[in-house]
């Protein structure tokens, strides 16, 4: 049996596959503060026991990102090259709001009195210019311990080219402060840019104790249940890593969980012939969107946590699936201001107290309360009927914002839904329109508890080719973890002219990185024959500052590489130059061969929607007001069954809302595919 759990701010999801290779799912409320308790609860609820012979366990969690955003990590010190103590303070000169004269740079995670300089210096090619003063490293560690630091980050200039000084310094620190959590910058990234490297090392050190403690508690509970083989955590790069490695480099888990849904969207899209997909994951706290082009999930090493329109955030130089996240989920709280305007989020009711409709919920109105009042969610089916939600409590909460606005409760509920849709549309546009992609060329795959509720309306607004609601949509990220593989990424900065004479150096770098990758997987007990590799280069024209990433093969010649770079540069920036080209960074991705495929339990054989009809109920739509809408049981909708909107298709983890001018059909994967009944002339041309 293979098992995956995904912890969100509101719910904890479970997906598992037994010897019959049939996918099964379950869900419980999350337990903030002790998230591992919810994992125990959902495993109990599913009846998973030692006799099930669990051969792999994959986990996704928001523990790391929450610790960073809420600043709940351990006190951290920094040891760096003499003269570079204030790199974190200086940061970058670019700022998000150029005309804000009250702008203040983000407060560093390491206060200045905990930033220590030592004498050492390497050249950019890794050659030693000044030997490391080991005694100064020891004194810095002793001072850090006396000041209360629990973790120490070490980041020396040009350590990406040669880590020898960082290794020696770490050994010295461990001699005098053995209990400290120590992070060396070359372990987190070997890509240049000193501010970003320093930030990444510091943030890793800051959350190391939090992540290690959490994973130890979780592992203890799992082992007690007889789950002790192949314990893995979802990484931000779309792959998995062992608990052991995750404890050492928790910064690679910042988007653990959400990225699994993107990976699953790409896999299901390719299987159904949908190569271009915009994924939309609407959970209890946030909505997350990512763009998949030609079946490829986009990665970035230009990731920042806590970035806002007024703050540049904190950079992490580590491969992360390119996701845009905004504070608009089912638990997002609606409010009014002194000017009589309705607002939404980013505050969320989370799992505790939860939306007002919950049995022990809060008193403030949320998006979930609005959807319940609008009739889009069945109160008798919430969490499969295990959570007794109240429409009356939802109405009372929404009335608190309706009265100041002079609106009826239903009007205010629609206003909250419109605001949520607007924020979610913005997330989608940030990964598509803002980057030169036309949403009309893509399919929108909506999942998470709120994805099926909002997806059809968002897809209609953007005129996407279709809206796809995958099976087990409410637990789709957990399902995605079962589709992922052990993965590790290496980035090595080595600036070279892209000329034929550099061919031998390029081959040597690929060989060294591949050797390191195989050693990494060997330590995990993986046969080298079961590891595959992909290669990419960051290139630029001579004189440029930034680069374009180009997929290559290790056997590609320099002229071939230059040709592909020119084509990609033209695609992204509309032009090529007759100028020399430089190689800047080498990217190697190593993947373990994937797990065996699984399938859904036998899809129903119903041949018409009438066989799945449950009844009717009034549902509130913006343009038509209340409409009596048929409701269908998704579990009874067979492949090929089609129905016209308006309609509600219900399942235990969510409800799919099909708009009045839309049509839904079940494809061979069991996904609900929603299209417009009447296409505009423009859509007809595009199709």
UniProtKB/TrEMBL annotation:
Instruction: Please give the Gene Ontology molecular function terms for this protein.
Output: 5-oxoprolinase (ATP-hydrolyzing) activity
Q: Which GO terms describe its cellular component?
A: cytosol
**GO annotation (BP), single:** glutathione metabolic process
* Pfam families with a match to the protein in the record: Hydant_A_C, Hydant_A_N, Hydantoinase_A
InterPro entries in alphabetical order: ACX-like_C, Hydant_A_N, Hydantoinase_A, Oxoprolinase-like
* Signal sequence, start to end: none
Boundaries of each Hydantoinase A/oxoprolinase domain copy? Answer: 197-489
Q: Which residues form the Acetophenone carboxylase-like C-terminal domain?
A: 503-668
Q: Which residues form the Hydantoinase/oxoprolinase N-terminal domain?
A: 2-175
* Stored PANTHER family: 5-OXOPROLINASE RELATED, HYPOTHETICAL 5-OXOPROLINASE (EUROFUNG)-RELATED
Name of this chain's protein: 5-oxoprolinase
Q: Which organism is it from?
A: Acrocarpospora pleiomorpha
